[in-house]
Predict the structure.
Amino acid sequence: MTKSMVITGASGFLGQTLRKSALLEGWQILCINRHAIDGALAFDDPRLESHLTMFAPKVIVHLAASYGEEAKGEGLQANLLLPLRLLKWASTQANIRFIAAGSFWQFGDIETPGPVDMYSASKQSLAVFLDYYRRCERLDCYHLILSSSYGPNDPRGKLVDYFVNAAKTKRSVNLGHQDKHFALTDVRDVASAIMLLSSYSAPLPLLTYRVRTEQLWTFERLSRLFEKLGYTLNVRYSPLNNGIMEIIHPNDEHIPTLPDWSASYCLEDYLRARLASSIISEPHGNG
């Protein structure tokens, strides 16, 4: 039987990693990106449903997302309108599994639960529709809640690589709230979780599962890891004043981990390899 998968946001960091993993396992892939480039379909393709019917996917993985100010306007296409269009089509087909990536951001902080911006609010809105399609339309769909990620060839300049670049260049590290707790999961482990869920022969009992390392980090603990590897960082703390709510203690502990999945990659090993490399990526911030 042909294994066929649709991936939205396939040009992103996780999307590219998932696509490579799926191809290695013999899956046929149809990509849906913002623009119709390199064989991908565009989000707003008027014949999207026809293309999907011809491709006949067994799994649809929705990864596409927009953040920040864009999430308040055009970003709603990626965050909500596209997945709703895909859900509607999938509900008319037989034996399709729908997997949507969620975020710990949509659950907020333990003390102030709930979405913290338009991005996380749209993720939480999609969760309501996923629940409806699962219960009322009998669609085999899932919501995987992801944490912050890192990994090889990450172009985003996120927290881990921000620390690495600061260690190499001896620049100060400017951070938010000192007591912030967060999970860091290798993107390859996230991709393996999606592949695992795609391969299950029978439906799982729940809609929502968590995919992240059990261990939570703090800026201080991460700094100590760099010291262990021979790099002392000059860390400065300053709570954010840009209107974005910080999550100090993620409110996702109640969500069960995806069955049979566990992280295989170690942050310390990744850092050791990155610090030994001469490559310094362009930092985009400490998020």
